[in-house]
Structures are given as C-alpha cells and as structure tokens.
Amino acid sequence: MTVKQGERLDDLLGRPGKIIQSDDVFSFSLDAVLLAEFVWVPIQKGNLVDLCAGTGAIPLFLSYRTKGSVTGIEIQPRLVDMANRSIAVNRLEHRLQIIEGDVKEAATRLGHARYDVVTCNPPYFLANETSLRNQNEHHTIARHEVLCTLEDCIQSASQLVKPGGKVAFVHRPERLLDIVTLMRTYRIEPKRMQLVYPKAGRAANTLLIEGSKDGKAGLTILPPLIVYEDDDTYTKTMRDILDA
C-alpha cells in the first residue's frame, strides 16, 4: 500500500514529484527546498548523503539536480518507511534510499570519506529549550537535540565526506558562531553562506552554509534571499527556485 491510514500524498513544491506526509509526524518545510537548491552537487554522478533525512524531502529534491545516488539516514523507523514509499512512488529506487540509523553511527554504517556531498537539516532547538518542546514525539525528535546534537551532525558529516567534498547545513542564524566553530573543529572550512529573510526589512530567520573538507580559508557571502513580497506572494527569486 502506497499511502496508509492517516497519511496523504502531497506535491513537492515546484517539482512534479510526490511525497507521503502525515499530520502525526514532522512535515518538510521550505528549509528543505532551500538547502537542496543551495548546496553544490555533482550533476552526472556522485554519492551523496542526507543526515536527519525525515520523510526524505531533501533526497527527493536533490534528485532533480543530480543523477548521483543519495542515501538518507533517519533514526525514526516510521519516517524511514514513509520516505522509502515516497521514493517508490517517484520510481527513484535505483538512485535514492533511506536507511534507519543513528547520525552518530553514520560513518560506521556507510563508510568513512566515501561521499562527495553531505547535507543536513538538523534539529534546531537545544534539548533544554522545554518551552518549545512539542508533546508529539516525532515532532520533538525532529526539532530538538534530544537524540543528536549539532556537533554530532557536523562530526558525522566530516567523517563521511571525502577531502574536498562539500557539506551543507540549513539552520537558524543565531547558531552561526556555533556552526562555524564546530565546522572548523572537524576540518570543514566554511566557503559559502546565505541568509534567508521572510520579507524585506525583517530579521533573517534561516541560515544556509556550505563548507569543504580540508578546504582553504575564504568565505563567500551570497546576496540575501527574500522569500515573500509584502502581499505574501513569493518573490521572483523564490519563484525561480521553486520553478527550477
């Protein structure tokens, strides 16, 4: 059965594919679209890993930019099942797979220094931010550092990626210094960064950052990305991303 009770088959934003989602678990957001579009990818071939893969949105979006193979790792078995059924719906089993596993053990499972690209949309909130905790276990694990921390994700990405390979994260701007410090601790040199703003004149609410394993110092700050016009329609830049 493709879609089980309590699930629905949703469109992939701006893409012809479909994804299985449910109100019972954490659904993908615009962050997944932005990260999949931001990260450098090999076009014709290559091996990519997506950590904290959830229901597989980032691997699905990446499949439109690369002909390489994408492996997602996700600790929640229900999400793994949903992701692999979504992959089957889109007939991408030959290039995409989601495996059940702990981010902290990803390199042991998948191999050290074997991958061209690692992406990650990690939990944004610290485990002790109890005021933001959601009573739904699936939502809590996806949003809070209860099963893996930012450091776990960055260390794992460093172990998986080849020298010179790319590692990209989407996170909150307030964690920028933590992210840069940890990336350099684990030999990932920040190379590209972009801040995302909900509207012009508002504070940035999303950070996109990409680094290179054992890369040389030198960070490029890309132009700001503004998501919505004042009338709540997408900006031209955002429409171009969604229509890519």
From TrEMBL:
InterPro entries listed in its UniProt record: SAM-dependent_MTases_sf, Small_mtfrase_dom, tRNA_Adenine-N(6)_MTase
Domain Methyltransferase small residues, every copy: 34-132
Domain of life: Bacteria
Name this protein carries in UniProt: tRNA1(Val) (Adenine(37)-N6)-methyltransferase
PANTHER family xref list: TRNA1(VAL) (ADENINE(37)-N6)-METHYLTRANSFERASE
SUPFAM superfamilies reported in the protein's UniProt record: S-adenosyl-L-methionine-dependent methyltransferases
